[in-house]
Amino acid sequence: MTDNYVASTCADSVHVDAITGTASVLFNDGSIYRYTNVSRRAIIKFIIDDARSLGKFINNVLLTNRVKCQYHTSTPEYVLG
């Protein structure tokens, strides 16, 4: 489980968990989405890659057909990242 700060024009932060295969993304507009059934291999690759791109991770991994997405309507009491 890790929080990584990666500069991005689409999202403020991401929280990924390779054990559960989940990711939560806080987008620039304040919306939060939780993704489940995320490829654990892709999460680990994202964590260890120094040249990672949050936009590419979202588009190539989180927006695939196998991944389920849920919008969070409540504001968290913590900041991702």
Layout of secondary structure:
Layout: E1 2-4, E2 11-17, E3 22-27, E4 32-36, H1 40-48, H2 54-62, E5 68-72
Antiparallel strand pairs: 1-2, 2-3, 3-4, 4-5
Question: How does this model look, in words?
Answer:
- This protein is of the alpha+beta class.
- It is 22% helix and 32% strand.
- It has 2 helices and 5 strands, in the order ββββααβ.
- It has helices at residues 40-48, 54-62; strands spanning 2-4, 11-17, 22-27, 32-36, 68-72.
- The longest helix has 9 residues, at 40-48.
Properties at a glance:
single chain, 81 residues, alpha+beta, 5-stranded antiparallel sheet, 2 helices, 22% helix
Number of strands: 5
- Through-space gap between termini: 12 Å
Largest sheet at a glance? 5 strands, antiparallel
Report the structural category. Answer: alpha+beta
The percent range for strand residues is: 25-35%
Provide the spatial order of strands within the biggest beta sheet: 1-2-3-4-5
Using only CA atoms, what is the Rg? 12 Å
The shape, in one word, is: globular
Helices and strands, in N-to-C order? EEEEHHE
Helical fraction equals 10-25%
- State the helix count: 2
Mean pLDDT reading: 84
Instruction: List the uncertain runs.
Output: none
